[in-house]
Design a protein that fits this description.
The chain has a domain of 50 residues. The chain is 27% helix and 41% strand. The protein contains 1 helix and 4 strands, in the order αββββ. A hairpin with a 2-residue loop joins strand 2 and strand 3. The two termini are 33 Å apart.
């Protein structure tokens, strides 16, 4: 019983350590586009690629919309 408990505790500690060490990608990366009115940014959120588009019209008003791209394995 003590062995089973120590194995479970060890696995929990290892899981917390690995989740703490995993790289976080909360910052958006600018994607180069040919348009001066449209900017694109991308990031990984979990297993999903998120793309943010910022479009500026002639009046200077910005419209932002996000799309979820490729989802990873489940």
């Amino acid at each position: 019983m003590k062995l089973l408990l120590s194995v479970i505790v060890g696995m929990l500690i290892l899981g917390f350590f690995l989740s703490w060490k995993m790289p976080r990608s909360e910052e958006w990366i600018h994607v180069k586009t040919n348009s001066s009115q449209e900017k694109q940014f991308a990031r990984m959120s979990g297993n999903t690629l998120q793309i943010k588009n910022v479009i500026k019209n002639d009046a200077g008003k910005e419209t932002i919309y996000m799309t979820n791209g490729i989802s990873g394995p489940k």
